[in-house]
Design a protein that fits this description.
The structure is a single chain. By secondary structure, the protein is α/β, with parallel strands linked by helices. The protein is built from 22 helices and 14 strands. The strands form two sheets. The chain has a seven-stranded parallel β-sheet with strand order 3-4-2-5-6-1-7. The longest helix is centred in the C-terminal third of the chain and has 29 residues, at about 515-545. The protein is elongated. Bound molecules: adenosine-5'-triphosphate.
Length: about 550
């Protein structure tokens, strides 16, 4: 019944944005007018906990690894102070020998780069020269840019075709280097592409190559490194630190200061200040033992508390898409994201087709949009092939953002026309789509971290409520609900429903005039499927015992 209740209006944040004594302006006094206006437009008044910690820390030029829940505003937490620092550096610049200062932000996908760029543009119009993105940018755009947002492989590819001196010039201007989604940029696994990395040793990720090149070519004393992710676990941090340790100018304190509101009781500005000194103490601390990571994972909550987690059990013979359709009918989200895991036995395309058949006219694919080689350093031919694709996807992403913007979706819209975007995990890493009220994950996610990033596409600020539904077979569900506990910090997945009706049934149910969802879900699943399952179980037992159970009993 809970799930059939009319949708509740999102209530104000319960995810502890209780730093309401402070405002972002107080934390960043030199915030320019454009930024203030942009914040007001997005109804951003009080900083989120990570912002309360990060804004003063980063604007003072200190390095940082930002770790906080998905959708908690990490982007603004690094963007606002980074833009500020680039401006300040420009003002201090006595001669024009070093040229203007710039902020370089690298992301694992072009889509995320497009989104971050759009956010940066809102906050720096007219103040900094130009923000740009390598995928579309010519070399001259890049040379002029104050903010560069791109994937590391794109940047390395562009650098490769240019004069080394000019590249040195460009890198020499970088004042703040940001790695968004650190664990995706520097994953634990090794790069095992068919082609050897052209720039560095085999096994190196492009982000590593870029960081090394930056350190070699940038002589600024004040060069600042910031990394961010909800799941920046120890292994990714160590990998980054290993690169930074090699800096000839010794600019980076190891371990890097870690900003994590959950580890500091940042409930007020005083607490945030206390937390900052905790962080500074940490800089001098010895590297911790390996158990720490286990402990960290155990106590760490990478997803906001406003997300409810559900399971939907698919029978072995049933289809995930049909189960998804039934689950959608129960939850009726304003907009939804669906992830198809590789082991689900279904593809994005087939799921979209099945949803369309079942009457979900708003279903559409949002996948394989990303530049295919954006994650590894690779050969040129694939780069060129990816170029056009990358652009189509980037533009499409902006359309998708509009479609899912709250306010564009009329409350009264018939729920079967709601936008439902079907995708694969990596395409949507880090993206913010506003009205996504529910996320459906079909099949078994690879790791707890990938569950976190998929489920984290809902319940994001400023509407921190959402639902994540894992649609999978019984065994897979068990694996998740038992095995992912430590990585996700989720204590319980509530069962939402089970079974998968035939798609033609779903289609006939798509008539808005005749919907008593609860009744037909009960009819379809509870009675018929349960009966079928019971006889199936009996048959299995028979087989295990070498004959029908009842007859055995009769004989004895
Ligand atoms: N202080 C705030 N109050 C309300 N909304 C905010 C605040 N800060 C950011 N937001 C909004 O929250 C949304 C999510 O922010 P953002 O994309 O930066 O999350 P994130 O922490 O980077 O998440 P992820 O880990 O999934 O990448 C954005 O649309 C942003 O406008």
């Amino acid at each position: 019944e809970v799930f059939l209740a009319p949708r509740q209006a999102p209530t104000k944040d319960q995810v502890a944005v209780d730093v309401d004594k402070v405002s972002i302006e107080e934390l960043l006094p030199a915030l320019p007018m454009e930024s203030r206006r942009a914040l007001l437009e997005h109804q951003i008044h009080t900083p989120s906990p990570i912002q309360a910690l990060a804004l003063p820390h980063i604007s003072s030029g200190k390095h940082a690894v930002l770790i906080s829940e998905t959708g908690s505003g990490k982007t603004l937490a690094y963007l606002l102070p980074a833009l500020q620092r680039a401006r300040d550096a420009d003002e201090d610049d006595d001669g024009s020998s070093t040229g203007p200062s710039s902020v370089m932000i690298v992301t694992p996908t072009r889509e995320l780069a497009v989104q971050t760029l759009a956010e940066a543009e809102e906050h720096c119009q007219g103040i900094l020269a130009l923000a740009t993105l390598s995928a579309r940018a010519s070399w001259w755009n890049l040379m002029d840019a104050s903010v560069i947002v791109a994937t590391p492989a794109d940047l390395l590819n562009i650098f490769d075709n240019e004069d080394a001196e000019e590249v040195k010039d460009l890198l020499g201007r970088v004042e703040v280097f940001v790695m968004d989604e650190l664990d995706e940029l520097l994953p634990k696994r090794k790069y095992t592409g068919r082609k050897l990395a052209r720039y560095q040793d085999p096994g190196m990720w492009p982000a590593e190559g870029l960081a090394k090149r930056l350190m070699r070519n940038n002589e600024r004393e004040t060069l600042q490194v910031v990394a961010a992710s909800a799941t920046a676990y120890r292994s990714s941090r160590l990998r980054l630190e290993k690169v930074l340790k090699r800096d000839k100018l010794n600019r980076f304190p190891i371990p890097l200061p870690r900003l994590d509101p959950q580890r500091s009781s940042a409930a007020s500005l005083e607490a945030a200040a206390r937390a900052r000194s905790v962080v500074e103490d940490e800089e001098s601390e010895e590297r911790r033992a390996l158990e720490e990571e286990a402990h960290e994972k155990q106590t760490y909550r990478a997803l906001p508390a406003g997300i409810q987690h559900f399971t939907w059990k698919v029978p072995l013979s049933g289809s995930h898409a049909a189960a998804l359709s039934a689950a959608l009918d129960l939850l009726r989200p304003q907009a939804a994201l669906v992830f198809v895991c590789p082991n689900a036995g279904e593809t994005v395309k087939s799921v979209v087709q099945d949803l369309q058949t079942a009457g979900w006219s708003g279903a559409d694919a949002l996948t394989r949009l990303l530049f295919p080689d954006s994650r590894t350093v690779s050969g040129k031919s694939s780069t060129q092939r990816g170029e056009a694709k990358g652009w189509r996807s980037a533009n499409r992403l902006l359309d998708v953002r509009d479609v899912t913007r709250r306010g564009y979706i009329e409350e009264g819209d018939f729920y079967r026309e709601a936008p439902i975007f079907v995708s694969a995990e990596e395409s949507v890493r880090g993206l913010h789509l506003d009205a996504v009220e529910a996320v459906f994950i079909l099949g078994l996610p690879k790791t707890g971290a990938s569950y976190v990033h998929m489920a984290g596409r809902t319940g994001r600020l400023p509407h921190p409520r959402g639902r994540a539904v894992l649609v999978a077979h019984g065994r897979e569900l068990m694996k998740v609900t038992r095995g992912f506990l430590t990585e996700t910090g989720i204590r319980k997945w509530e069962p939402l429903g089970w079974g998968s009706p035939s798609l033609s049934d779903m289609a006939s149910m798509a008539d808005p005039g005749s919907r008593n969802v609860k009744t037909w879900v009960d009819d379809l699943y509870s009675v018929e499927e349960k009966k079928a399952q019971r006889s199936e179980a009996a048959a299995r037992l028979d087989a295990a015992l070498g004959g029908p159970v009842r007859r055995l009993r009769k004989r004895t």
